[in-house]
Write a structure and sequence with these properties.
Pfam families: DUF6879. This is DUF6879 domain-containing protein. There is one protein chain. This protein is 40% helix and 25% strand. It is of the alpha+beta class and 174 residues long. The protein has a single domain (2-169), classed as Endonuclease Chain A (Endonuclease, Chain A, 2-Layer Sandwich), CATH 3.30.870. It is globular.
Length: 174
Amino acid sequence: MRRSLNAGTDFSALLKSVRRSSWRWECQREYAVDLPEVERWRKGLSVLETEEDRAWLAHLGVLKAAGIPFERVRMLTEPLTDYLAWMLQAIGPNVAAGEDVRWLKESTARELGMPHHDFYLLDETSVAELRFTEENVLTAVVVDDDTAVVAEHQRWRRAAWSAAIPHAELRIGR
C-alpha cells in the first residue's frame, strides 16, 4: 500500500508506530525548518531549543527506553554547507538522547549509488520516502507492500551504514 502523509500529526503518528527499528537517510544540503537556527549560529548567537526539538528528544528517549534503535546517516556535502557545519555542532543533544548518528561524504554516497531523496526505513518493513515542495513543505510517501522498494531501501541502508563514520569518530575541517 502507498499512502501520502503531510508533515505534522500523521507523520508523527507514523514515527511513533515503530516497534523494532528506525533508520533515516538525509542527503539535502539544508533543511528549511532549521534555517533560523543556522542564521543564529552564523551570528555567533546561542542555540534556542524549540518545542519541536524537545518533542524529538523526548521521542528518542522513549525509543531508547524501549530498546528500539534510531539510527541516522547524514550526507556531508563537498564542500560543506553552512547548514551541515552547524549541524555537526548542534547534533550533540540527539546523540546524548540515544540517536546513533553517522556521516557519509557526498562522493562516497554517489559511489554507493545512494538516492537523492531522504527516507526512513521503519521496522525494516516500511519505507517513508520524504519529499520537499518548492515551499519546503515536507510530505512523505509511505510504502509497505512493495517488497522490491523495501529491499532497495534496505540495500541502501546497509551500504550507507557500513561506510559511514560514527559521529564521535568524525574529524572534519572546513
